[in-house]
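thought: fold this chain, then report.
action: predict
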Amino acid sequence: MSNQRNERFDTLQPGISISSKNSTNGTLGLIVYDKKNDFAPCILSNWHVLAARKFKLGSMRRGANTYQPGRINTNNRPRRANKVGKLVRHNRRWDCAIARITNRDFITEQFETGVLITKTRIPKIGDIVEKSGTRTGVTRARVVGVGLKWVSLKPVEEGNPNDDEISQGGDSGSIWYDPVTHEGLILHSKGENDENDDPEAESASGLILQTVLEKLSVSLVPEQAV
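observation:
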């Protein structure tokens, strides 16, 4: 069964497949606006999705191409027609990056849920959060740890009795948000890789979104809405 999120979209939106020429496939997390460049619309995702060189050996230069769908969905051969953006800035320590949109129209609602994220807040332990990611689609999780940088997530039900997968490879870059208030909380970065497939080991982690936006000097709304 094909995954629609891995197909080519004439109109970009959060929750679909993207990558650079050499990076792993990931998810377009948000459309954001670059405060340093007249609030130009940009793609927000992880550093390791938009800016990492092959095998994560350093970062690519400003202007490197972003592709939609990601290269894995085109047999590892990024196509010229799939170029959608140019790398603008990144922060490897915070695993985040932005690429200026160049070739396509866009909408800002999350794929499948229609959620529009225009505000952020700091996550807190016990929060139930939701994300729209390329690999596992729409899933929910529970915040179990909040540090100065990293946020830890587990399945909503203690012990994960239903063996829920809250994320897998390809969801990197998606945004965990409050499903009630639609506030953005976390930039998803990684999930667990338990070889024994233990349901209780299911987990994920990400970066505090509010700080990510500050690090990259971007806004969730265009200039006229600020």
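thought: worth noting. The mean pLDDT is 93.
final: tokens above.
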